[in-house]
């Protein structure tokens, strides 16, 4: 099985590393800067909050699809690990590097990016996937997993084969048939991405302050109300049910520290991907996360002032670029 990672940055390189270690054939489609870093450091190094460390070199590092006619029609599976707003423009490139029986797996957070491309690729097996953990890109081509969780992929024969390779090599991988609860449930957790970027603190430190948790609880309550109105069930990613999360967040510090032990059992350095975007002066995905709460809320007549305010705050930070 020939696998490509299209847009290999933080999560794409982490996924590529796990797949290569699992003895799968993996090529990266990435920016020249990432290629240079990987070559200079003799491969991608994966590390995690439990002390895991391994370096591996992917099969190929491709920076310009147009210059590489040997990859036309080559890939059986393509993981798209671009940011949400980068997805809609790559349909032609995906068609060039795949064949009729290929699977294309979209790994974006939030809502809207999959819809922005799926009609252009309707003859393919299009799937979605989730990265439930945080990946921080560090110097020397080191990609650090800061929180717990395993890649979660929508079921088909390709993803089931990939799961088997990952599990056989000591990495977990979950397979789910119905992905709507996965995507909507992940969005509930991603409501913290923007708040983490605004507070400019590691997630663990950010959540130790009651006033930060209170805003997150309010943003989450809005999304839970929207999902209830839309009759959408949310996948449970944490030890407690999604609907209980705001109540847990609103506990006083002492009780929160005890009851939310799992939520706080993360790398003290872990931040959200939106924090990384703001730091790197990149466009963020706020429109696909808090912005999605606002737009779907409007459709169902649910007021979402907290998420609206968060969108505006992030837009201001983006304008400082
Ligand atoms: N980072 C994290 O911890 C997590 C991220 N996610 C989600 O995963 C998705 C991917 O995020 P992440 O991995 O952080 O994103 P990154 O920005 O780190 O990776 C995307 C990479 O693709 C590059 N790129 C953009 N366009 C092209 C192109 N046409 N050809 C080749 N390379 C291209 C980007 O370069 P450039 O920057 O120059 O555009 C960047 O290097 C997002 O939806 C995010 O929300 C989910 C869970 C955790
Ligand atoms: C894993 C999590 C929730 C960490 O904040 C994330 O999805 C992100 O950073 O984008």
From TrEMBL:
Residues 179-318 form the Ketopantoate reductase C-terminal domain. It is an enzyme of class 1 (oxidoreductase). GO terms for biological process: pantothenate biosynthetic process. SUPFAM superfamilies: 6-phosphogluconate dehydrogenase C-terminal domain-like (SSF48179), NAD(P)-binding Rossmann-fold domains (SSF51735). It catalyses: (R)-pantoate + NADP(+) = 2-dehydropantoate + NADPH + H(+). Pathway: Cofactor biosynthesis; (R)-pantothenate biosynthesis; (R)-pantoate from 3-methyl-2-oxobutanoate: step 2/2. Its EC number is 1.1.1.169. GO terms for cellular component: cytoplasm. Gene3D superfamilies: N-(1-d-carboxylethyl)-l-norvaline Dehydrogenase, domain 2, NAD(P)-binding Rossmann-like Domain. Keywords: NADP, Oxidoreductase, Pantothenate biosynthesis. Pfam families: ApbA, ApbA_C. It comes from the Bacteria. Residues 3-155 form the Ketopantoate reductase N-terminal domain. GO terms for molecular function: 2-dehydropantoate 2-reductase activity; NADP binding. Belongs to the ketopantoate reductase family. Catalyzes the NADPH-dependent reduction of ketopantoate into pantoic acid. This is 2-dehydropantoate 2-reductase.
């Amino acid at each position: 099985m020939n696998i490509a990672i299209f847009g290999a940055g933080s999560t794409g390189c982490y996924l590529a590393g796990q797949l290569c270690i699992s003895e799968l054939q993996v090529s990266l489609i990435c920016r020249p800067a990432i290629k240079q870093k990987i070559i200079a450091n003799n491969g991608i190094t994966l590390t995690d909050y439990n002390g895991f460390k391994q370096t591996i070199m992917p099969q190929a590092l491709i920076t310009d699809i147009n210059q590489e006619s040997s990859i036309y029609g080559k890939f059986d599976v393509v993981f798209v690990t671009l940011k949400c707003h980068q997805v809609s423009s790559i349909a032609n490139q995906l068609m060039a590097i795949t064949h009729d029986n290929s699977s294309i797996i979209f790994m974006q957070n939030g809502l809207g990016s999959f819809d922005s491309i799926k009609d252009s690729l309707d003859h393919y097996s299009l799937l979605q996937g989730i990265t439930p953990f945080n990946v921080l890109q560090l110097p020397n081509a080191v990609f650090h997993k800061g929180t717990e969780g395993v890649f979660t992929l929508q079921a088909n024969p390709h993803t089931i084969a990939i799961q088997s390779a990952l599990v056989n090599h000591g990495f977990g991988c979950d397979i789910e048939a119905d992905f709507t609860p996965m995507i909507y449930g992940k969005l509930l957790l991603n409501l913290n991405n923007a708040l983490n970027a605004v507070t400019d603190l590691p997630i663990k430190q950010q959540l130790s302050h009651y006033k930060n948790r209170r805003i997150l609880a309010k943003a989450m309550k809005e999304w839970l109300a929207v999902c209830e109105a839309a009759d959408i069930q949310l996948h449970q990613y944490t030890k407690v049910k999604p609907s209980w999360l705001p109540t847990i967040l609103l506990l006083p510090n002492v009780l929160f520290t005890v009851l939310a032990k799992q939520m706080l059992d993360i790398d003290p350095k872990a931040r959200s991907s939106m924090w990384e975007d703001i730091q790197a002066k990149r466009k963020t995905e706020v429109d696909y996360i808090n912005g999605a709460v606002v737009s779907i809320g409007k459709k169902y007549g649910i007021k979402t002032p907290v998420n609206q305010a968060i969108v505006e705050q992030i837009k201001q930070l983006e304008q400082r670029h």
